[in-house]
């Protein structure tokens, strides 16, 4: 085993004994000695399992129920032994399987931490020193001396997870952890995982939440009927999972499985001059091109791993796509619809903003505290801007060359002078700011705050929050029709789009789009608003005049060639 | 080891009297047996109350230890199926809990000795050895019982009956002379019999043990541990699946 391998699994085979009649007493055993019929069968659970996990890798395991995921985790953790084959691991390992079962309900949280820590191989002194940190991370300060039987499931999970994070193992084995706990805690766990990974630690992760796999994991395996069906980059594996599941629904009518994320569209952008719509498909690693006139998908352009946001430069008719998992920017020509260039950027690129006058492209990163500046003529990174945290949303005011970016970890918007690439302002907004849009007529900046279900309005002259508008669950994408002055906000947690009047800054109404909308874009010339949803792989078209949904485009539809 | 200590601590943490409750039962037993049998054995056994108390303490350690040890894997099944923990630790901790209780009981015993005005002689140095032998013997039985119980759940009641029989077939309440001459040999095959004999001799009667008895006791204890652990190791492979 070479030194950069954390887990090495070779030809593992494991069977379970399935009893036709269970003999679990001595009486049964004796009375059945005369009955020579075989009363059990060895049923193979896992066969020919071989894979390696590198140090510092996040490794996902996916599969349908009963495919052997949990058994594989238990083998990795050493709880069970394989019948044949070899499993080698290096470093201290902590399994988080069936959270909190090692807890005693009659003891307080404090005592359970001590007991659990000792089971995980700590001395009592060490663990007592860590109690405060554990309780703080789990946000259970008020309940330190409460007996565990009075805890909710979420609290249990938070406590177990916090202990594991504080133990700081080299390998963490996780079974469906992020599904428990509320959204802020999930976000926190996610960040903890990321920092864990940054320190070169290994995480093996089992979940049914496939977006978690594509979001978190570098590589994955797909277990199907006890065998490895596919191995590789997480999004490829997830795609092969969908293919298998899809075939299964066709052949096996008894089982209904909803397939929701085959394309997983996230970002949408419109070229209003050409009336073309571009959609980035996170799960399919492609960009769909839709004709705004006929509302038909005319092409799917393959790009790199997990395209997230995309922006059209209407002056040059180039489309820039941030490939989250490939750490690159794809450049697509708007005329020929061919990929013309790929630019390497930082870790997990997220937002893109273009200064069309200077032909400069700015890219924000989820896993890097920097904004990259790209020269659009040379397709080269020419500068980077350091930030106090990782940023998501990115917009530019091309009149003043000021750049605005949202930093969710500090609930703030940072203002950057684009001429000198320096931070010139810092505005605190509400919880978890993501999307932004600039109203150039009124010199206002609108920011969606996902976790406070609101939109903050900032005066960009004075750099102050002037208005706080409450919208619905989890506002995400936001767009402005400059011609009508109307703002549209996608509420990604509640199937609706909120419409805000730009002059009064009041919510006019909200439209039900029937899916969870993520990205949003608009064509001011035709007054059409487009929202995209990864929950059903579709685009919803809203007429800006009467605010009615006029059509939906399904990305699964056959492509009509031009 | 740390697990066992904390297990014991946590067990009695919630009820102040919890620890004393656990002594109440043997204490009651002692009182009854004392009143009933003092009449019968009056004069035949020197320091009969101490004789009886020593017998009960050591027997309780074995009976309680094997019972707790036997249940240890089943009661900790949640822990075993979700964390990697050497299963031996779980059994060990179950027996150790009972061991600690015996240590407390022996302290009480020493108080009784004081009441009787007895001072132990140099032979007492063999008592710790006896205590360790008892621990190892209990552990050996517990290893086998704990893993077998996972497969055969009625072992619990069977073992209860065996303990009941063994209680009366051993020299806890009376001396070996109470048994007919013919079966005395078989009675003394029970390792508890020489164990009690030696323990009482070195503590109460200031007598050195017979070398043959000691050798027999040590070898049977060692055999119990080896056989028990072997059974445990063989059954251990599929234990998680059966839980």
Largest sheet geometry of chain B: none
How many strand segments of chain B?
0
Biggest β-sheet description of chain A:
6 strands, mixed
Q: Which runs of chain A of at least 5 residues are low in confidence (pLDDT < 50)?
A: 249-261, 558-562
Number of helices of chain B: 11
Distance between the termini of chain B: 24 Å
**Rg of chain B, alpha carbons:** 19 Å
Enumerate how many helices of chain A there are, as a single number. 8
Distance between the termini of chain A: 54 Å
Helix content of chain B: over 70%
**Helical residue percent band of chain A:** 10-25%
Q: How is this structure best summarized?
A:
The complex is a heterodimer of chains A (562) and B (243). Chain A is of the alpha+beta class and 562 residues long. In chain A, β31 (486-491) and β32 form a beta hairpin.
Give an overview in words.
The complex is a heterodimer of chains A (562) and B (243). Chain A is an alpha+beta fold and 562 residues long. Helices cover 17% and strands 44% of the residues of chain A. Chain A has 8 helices and 37 strands. The longest helix of chain A is centred in the middle third of the chain and has 18 residues, at 234-251. Chain A starts with a strand and ends in an 8-residue tail after the last strand. The relative contact order of chain A is 0.07. Chain B has 243 residues and is an all-alpha fold. Chain B has one domain (2-12, 22-242). Helices cover 77% and strands 0% of the residues of chain B. Chains A and B meet through helix 1 and helix 3 of A and helix 1 and helix 4 of B.
């Amino acid at each position: 085993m070479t030194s950069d391998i954390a887990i090495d699994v070779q030809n593992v085979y494991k069977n379970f004994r399935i009893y036709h009649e269970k003999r679990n007493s001595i009486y049964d055993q004796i009375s059945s000695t005369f009955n020579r019929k075989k009363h059990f069968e060895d049923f193979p659970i896992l066969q020919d399992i071989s894979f390696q996990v590198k140090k510092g890798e996040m490794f996902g395991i996916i599969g349908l129920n009963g495919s052997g995921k949990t058994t594989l985790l238990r083998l990795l953790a050493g709880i069970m032994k394989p019948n044949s084959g070899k499993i080698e691991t290096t470093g201290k390992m902590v399994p988080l399987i069936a959270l909190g079962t090692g807890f005693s309900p009659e003891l307080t949280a404090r005592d359970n931490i001590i007991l659990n820590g000792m089971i995980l191989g700590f001395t009592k002194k060490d663990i007592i020193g860590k109690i405060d940190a554990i309780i703080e991370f789990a946000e259970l300060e008020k309940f330190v001396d409460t007996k565990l039987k009075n805890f909710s499931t979420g609290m249990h999970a938070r406590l177990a997870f916090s202990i594991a994070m504080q133990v700081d193992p080299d390998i963490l084995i996780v079974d469906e952890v992020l599904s428990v706990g509320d959204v802020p805690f999930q976000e926190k766990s996610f960040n903890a995982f990321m920092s864990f990974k940054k320190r070169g630690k290994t995480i093996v992760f089992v979940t049914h939440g496939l977006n978690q796999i594509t979001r978190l994991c570098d590589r994955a395996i797909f277990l199907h009927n006890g065998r490895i069906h596919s191995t590789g980059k997480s999004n490829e594996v997830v795609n092969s999972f969908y293919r298998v599941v899809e075939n299964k629904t066709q052949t096996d009518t008894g089982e209904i499985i909803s397939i929701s994320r085959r394309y997983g569209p996230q970002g949408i952008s419109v070229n209003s001059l050409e009336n073309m719509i571009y959609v980035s498909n996170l799960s399919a690693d492609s960009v769909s091109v839709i004709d705004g006139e006929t509302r038909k998908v005319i092409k799917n352009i393959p790009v790199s791993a997990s395209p997230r946001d995309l922006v059209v430069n209407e002056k040059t008719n180039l489309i820039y796509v941030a490939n989250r998992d490939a750490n690159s920017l794809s450049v697509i020509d708007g005329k020929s619809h061919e990929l013309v260039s790929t630019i390497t950027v930082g870790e997990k690129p997220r937002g893109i903003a273009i200064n069309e006058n200077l032909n400069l492209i700015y890219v924000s990163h989820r896993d890097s505290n920097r904004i990259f500046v790209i020269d659009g003529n040379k397709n080269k990174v020419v500068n980077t801007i350091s930030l106090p945290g990782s940023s998501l949303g990115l917009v530019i005011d091309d009149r003043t060359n000021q750049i605005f970016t949202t930093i969710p970890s500090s609930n703030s918007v940072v203002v950057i002078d684009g001429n000198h690439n320096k931070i010139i302002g810092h505005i605190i907004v509400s919880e978890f700011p993501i999307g932004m849009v600039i109203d150039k007529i009124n010199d206002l900046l609108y920011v969606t705050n996902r976790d406070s279900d609101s939109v903050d309005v900032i005066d960009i002259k004075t750099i102050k929050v002037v208005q706080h508008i409450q919208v619905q669950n989890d506002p995400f994408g936001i767009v402005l029709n400059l011609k009508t002055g109307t703002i549209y906000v996608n509420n990604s947690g509640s199937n609706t789009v909120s419409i805000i009047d730009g002059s009064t800054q009041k919510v006019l109404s909200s439209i039900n789009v029937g899916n969870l909308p993520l990205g949003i874009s608009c064509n001011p010339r035709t007054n059409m608003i487009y929202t995209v949803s990864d929950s059903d792989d579709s685009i919803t078209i809203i007429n800006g005049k009467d605010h009615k949904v006029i059509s939906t485009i399904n990305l699964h539809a056959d492509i009509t060639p031009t | 080891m740390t697990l066992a200590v904390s297990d014991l601590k946590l067990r009695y943490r919630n009820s102040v009297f919890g620890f004393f409750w656990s002594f109440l039962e043997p204490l009651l037993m002692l009182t009854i047996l004392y009143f009933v049998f003092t009449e019968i054995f009056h004069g035949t056994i020197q320091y009969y109350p101490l004789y009886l108390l020593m017998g009960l303490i050591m027997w309780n350690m074995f009976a309680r230890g094997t019972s707790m040890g036997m249940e240890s894997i089943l009661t900790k099944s949640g822990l075993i199926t979700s964390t990697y923990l050497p299963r031996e630790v779980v059994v060990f901790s179950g027996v150790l809990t009972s061991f600690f209780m015996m240590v407390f009981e022996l302290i009480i015993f020493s108080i009784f000795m004081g009441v009787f005005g007895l001072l132990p002689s140099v032979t007492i140095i063999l008592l710790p050895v006896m205590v360790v032998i008892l621990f190892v013997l209990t552990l050996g039985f517990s290893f086998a019982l704990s893993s077998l119980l996972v497969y055969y759940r009625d072992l619990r009641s069977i073992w209860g009956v065996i303990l009941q029989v063994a209680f009366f077939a051993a020299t806890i309440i009376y001396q070996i002379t109470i048994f007919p001459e013919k079966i005395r040999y078989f009675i003394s095959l029970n390792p508890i019999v020489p164990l009690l004999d030696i323990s009482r001799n070195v503590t109460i009667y200031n007598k050195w043990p017979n070398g043959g008895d000691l050798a027999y006791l040590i070898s049977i204890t060692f055999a119990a541990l080896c056989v028990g652990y072997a059974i445990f190791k063989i059954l251990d492979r599929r234990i998680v699946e059966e839980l």
